[in-house]
Amino acid sequence: MRHRLDAAISSSAEIQHLNKLETLLEAIPDGVVKVDTAGRLQSTNEAAQRLLVRIASDASEAKDILRPVRATSLRARDIQGHLLTADTTPITRMLRGETLSGQHAPIIHFPTRDGQELYLQISGAPLQNEFAQTVGAVAILRDMTEYMQRRRYLEEMLLQGAIEQRRLRAREERARHISALVADSSYSYQLRVDGDIKREWTTDTFSRITGYMPEEIDRLGWLNPVLYHVDDQPAVQARREALLAGASDVREWRFITRNGEMRWLRDSCHPARDQVSGFFHVYGAVHDITSHKEAEEQIYQLSQQLSVTFAAITDGVVVYDRDGRILQVNQAARELGAFDLIANFSTLPLAERIQLVQMRSDQQALPLERAPFYRVLHGEILRGPQVEDIFITALDGRQLCLNVSGAPIRNLADEIIGAVLIFRDMTVRRRQELRTQHALDALLAMAEALVHSTEQVTFPDNMADQAAYISRQEAVQHLLSLTRDLLGARAACIVTMEPEAHRLAPVAVMGLPGEQEERFWADMSRAHLHDYFQPELCELLLAGEPVLLDMAELPGINMPTYGMLQMLVAPLHIGEQCLGLLAVDAPSVEQEYPLHEALVLLKVIGKLTALVIERERLIHERIIAQARALAESEANRQKDEFLRLASHELRTPLATIRASLQFTRRKLNHLQEQTAQEDPLERLEEMLNRGERQVAVESRLIGDLLDVSRIQEDRLELQSKLCNLLDVVRNVVADLQAGNMLRTIRVIVPEGEDMIPVVADVERIGQVLTNYLNNAIKYSPVDKAIKVYFELEETVVRVAVCDDGPGLAQEVQTKVWERFYQVPNRIVYSGSSGLGLGLYICQKIIRQHYGQVGVKSSPGQGATFWFTLPLALS
């Protein structure tokens, strides 16, 4: 048949079955058609096309010729001559569920296009899907025109014989002669009132079909049940009763020929009563339909094979009609989508079914027009590159990845009447691909950890061993995090192990609750390998093999299990040495990987972790050596720089003091020698003032050194009390203004504020402000005013000293707070640059007051140094 099934059937065996079926159907002399529920043709063989095209007014209408609604326009009649209606056509009866076969198969008269007549016997049965719903029908069209012409002719002859008894023999001879000329076998016998049958004549064809000579039939007896299959004997009795009642009868039965062969015969007989004798003259015709029945049986067997094959396919196969309704679904598809959980799932609209299974692509909901069924029903063939993976949620909640292929089903007019889709479950393979990709990504990340160095780690003084340990712990912590993500483990840990004593030392742990983690660090520091592992497991671990540890069978007494039942443990093995162990929670891992895969993967991770630990150890040894050398070099540099600064800064005031004292001594010795115009006391007072100022400078430098020493030893004590910050600032400014008469220092007080309460050490805050102001005096021109202003916030007060000096570059603004740091090439307008300790001490003092320090400056724009203090709000 011309049926578009190749797109729907993927296996070669199914295609071979289809080819056999098509060849068989084309070989059948009768027409075979398949119609949908509306009576439209879906497929036909060539014999059917030849018959139907004779009825249709043109070739384009042949596909709708059997539709019930066409019955009236075709002027079709049954054998009794009644016009057919839409409700009485054979197709309508089959679509209502009737099976038309044997005597129930009607013969219909159709006028043909060329004005002739066509008699078709229409037999067949409805087609049902797996839900017992009628989805169409299959009908067999047998051309009975010649038979009906013969029958009509015989009936006319019989009628004329009944009227004209005298011409009966002549007519019988003529009928016998005609019957001998046709392919069907004809016969005539006389049936007496008492039921006795006497042959009158038969054709040679009858003898060829049955194998019996007429005389042999006479001896055996006509309608003898032994001549028929045992299952057809009730039909033989029904034939006898029909003839005795004077009724025509048509039967299909199995006749046992003389050589024992079983042949299917279509036997039609028509009795005519002799009004004189009361006997019936029976005229009949036999048609050998054995090949037709064998073809039907082959079709049935092929249909059964296709049904069994359809059900046995491991992929889900679903057949849709052109509206997207499910016509047929195999068991694999039912189980895949759990469709049986919703009784009417197959009858739901296509869009609703898509919504129920949450069809999506790349985690995005799949629009209806992109759904595979929609695309196929609109003409796409999904195969090769067009095959698409989609994700659905089965009706039982399972998340599935399906590979969907399919093709449309077309009728003879090349119209799409449905679709076949094949769903292959790719969930396991998809999960394996993701798992493999995840494992590869994690292993690559671990490999990167082997490549990337951590040489920028800063180690505290005299704590090289602790710093190395901390650095190693951070690197291993990263590896442990990657391991947990890769294996999906709930908890994991890494411990190192002493080579000889096999004593364990915890390095990293993840996934344990807080209390259990604290206990882990404490317990594991006292544990040995044999506390957790039996001797045979110890041997495997020391040999570099991973093991599965049952926490219920620990050799140690009362060893903590941390709520875990089983653990996967891999050694951290390098060469012949076991550096430690990597352990993860087994039950959670087994949800992601089979046990053997998890052990192999953990072994690889253990080797990578061991390499990282060993690399970290070697790197840290080198870093520690470099750090020590660098620290010694920096210490020597700072010491030399400090000695240079100290010798210069301390000698300068001393030289001034010495010169002032020498000058004073000379003035006293030559006091009497001075002229009257000179004022020696004024000159002496100036020298004494200079000496006092240098003594103050010397005292400040020594004080700075003492403060730095206290800070380093954490002995900088504060005498805090509640005070008015405005008064503190005013007093400091007044003192500095008195010693620097040429400078202008402006204090800008917030409007309406006469008190800013803080809890602070007044002397230390004054020391900070003095340092800020002295720096402003040193590094700004004499004619430029210095401003001190306040900013009140919710809980703190900000004090800022602003000058119009050369400013600071961005890169040195953080360095000025470091010990001994001095801005290079900076212009000093008055005084000396100092030891580079002032701002360092200011920062420490303010931080002890829970405040902050900072600077805002740009080159050429001056500088603003500020500090904050908490307000005393209560």
From TrEMBL:
GO terms for cellular component: plasma membrane. It catalyses: ATP + protein L-histidine = ADP + protein N-phospho-L-histidine. SUPFAM superfamilies: ATPase domain of HSP90 chaperone/DNA topoisomerase II/histidine kinase (SSF55874), GAF domain-like (SSF55781), Homodimeric domain of signal transducing histidine kinase (SSF47384), PYP-like sensor domain (PAS domain) (SSF55785). InterPro entries: GAF, GAF-like_dom_sf, HATPase_C_sf, HATPase_dom, His_kinase_dom, HisK_dim/P_dom, HisK_dim/P_sf, PAC. SMART domains: HATPase_c (SM00387), HisKA (SM00388), PAC (SM00086), PAS (SM00091). Residues 645-873 form the Histidine kinase domain. PROSITE patterns: HIS_KIN, PAC. Residues 101-156, 249-301, 385-438 form the PAC domain. Residues 654-701 form a coiled coil. The keyword Nucleus does not apply. It is an enzyme of class 2 (transferase). Its EC number is 2.7.13.3. CDD domains: HATPase, HisKA, PAS. GO terms for molecular function: histidine phosphotransfer kinase activity; phosphorelay sensor kinase activity. Keywords: Coiled coil, Kinase, Phosphoprotein, Transferase, Two-component regulatory system. NCBIfam families: sensory_box. This is histidine kinase. It comes from Dictyobacter kobayashii.
